[in-house]
């Protein structure tokens, strides 16, 4: 994804929100879902001459999905740009309201012409479903990602997502939307993307929902995956993806990561009793905490680890050993060195 177009002093790159729409409303008076605006022959000539952008869809008051002179999809950013674009079908390339342009499409991997409308609809539907505005930056980023995924499928290259089981627990709403998107891509383009691809799309949606780079939820998901795998090997338990024990452990780890991200200390009135009755489970929880602190660069509070220790104690008992003793024959295994650790 490239950034081009005019820039002005004081513009914050990456900020498409500003005075955006109300929560859940990405449409305003824009076109109906799936209805990309048509351009007249005169407007097409102006766009191809590089003097105008064709408006495809208004994303919010400050962002517009458009097409440039070469036919590439581009998200135009500017305060009030989307509000004014609702009443016109093209925007002059030298319009002073344009603060930044984010172009989709990598060299040699063009974006199919039918894909921008599907992705724009996803952003609209996600805002309505999740009840909050979605950062429009997801449009060019997701167009790039999907174009590359389609390219890999055409080349017969595999698309595997080792974190899909964790994504199903961590981001279920985003994953449902992502699976709908894959169905629409298959219907429009005749290419069926593998189910694992929905997990990657869900990470993009989560990032856009939180207004953070996609690498942040991806990093947290990889960390949860590594912690789960270490617990599985250390305790000798199955933790089958989709099973209750797996889902509960992933959920506990998510709450722990959320607490670490918030900072501060959440009092745990049960902590002294947990430390006394389940010392080995507490020791395992501290090892998890050490790895989280190493990977995220933030301290992990003992109170928060106590809640994780309770779940680890249950897993230890289910594995056939007492909760206050390490499972028989389980070797001491350092948490670092997981294949997916950064």
TrEMBL record:
Region listing for Disordered, in residue ranges: 1-48, 320-342
Protein name, per record: Transcriptional antiterminator, BglG
Phylogenetic classification of the source organism: Bacteria, Bacillati, Bacillota, Clostridia, Eubacteriales
Composition bias, Low complexity: 320-332
Biological-process GO terms, alphabetical: regulation of DNA-templated transcription
GO molecular function: RNA binding
Domain named PRD: residues: 110-215, 216-322
Endoplasmic reticulum listed as a keyword: no
Residue stretches of biased makeup (Basic and acidic residues): 1-10, 19-47
Pfam family, one: PRD
């Amino acid at each position: 994804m490239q950034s081009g177009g005019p820039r002005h002093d004081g513009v914050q790159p990456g900020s498409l929100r500003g005075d955006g729409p109300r929560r859940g409303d990405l449409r305003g008076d824009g076109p109906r879902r799936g209805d990309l605006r048509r351009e007249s022959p005169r407007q097409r000539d102006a766009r191809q001459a590089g003097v105008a952008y064709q408006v495809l869809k208004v994303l919010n008051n400050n962002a517009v999905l458009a097409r440039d002179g070469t036919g590439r999809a581009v998200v135009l950013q500017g305060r009030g740009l989307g509000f004014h674009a609702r009443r016109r079908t093209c925007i002059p390339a030298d319009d002073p309201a344009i603060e930044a342009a984010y172009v989709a499409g990598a060299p040699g991997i063009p974006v199919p012409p039918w894909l921008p409308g599907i992705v724009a609809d996803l952003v609209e539907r996600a805002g309505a479903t999740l009840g909050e505005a979605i950062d429009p930056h997801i449009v060019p980023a997701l167009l790039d990602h999907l174009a590359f995924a389609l390219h890999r499928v055409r080349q017969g290259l595999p698309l595997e997502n080792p974190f899909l089981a964790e994504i199903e627990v961590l981001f279920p709403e985003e994953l449902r939307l992502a699976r709908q998107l894959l169905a629409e891509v298959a219907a429009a383009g005749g290419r069926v993307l593998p189910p694992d691809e929905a997990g990657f799309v869900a990470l993009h949606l989560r990032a856009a929902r939180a207004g953070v780079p996609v690498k942040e939820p991806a990093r947290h998901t990889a960390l949860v995956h590594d912690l789960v795998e270490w617990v599985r090997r250390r305790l000798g338990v199955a933790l089958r993806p989709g099973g209750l024990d797996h889902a509960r452990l992933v959920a506990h780890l998510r709450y722990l990561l959320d607490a670490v991200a918030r900072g501060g200390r959440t009092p745990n009135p049960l902590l002294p009793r947990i430390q006394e009755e389940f010392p080995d489970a507490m020791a395992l929880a501290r090892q998890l905490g050490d790895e989280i602190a190493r990977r995220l660069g933030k301290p992990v509070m003992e109170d928060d680890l106590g809640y994780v220790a309770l779940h680890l104690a249950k897993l230890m008992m289910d594995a056939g050993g007492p909760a206050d003793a390490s499972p028989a024959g389980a070797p001491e295994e350092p948490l670092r060195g997981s294949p997916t650790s950064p």
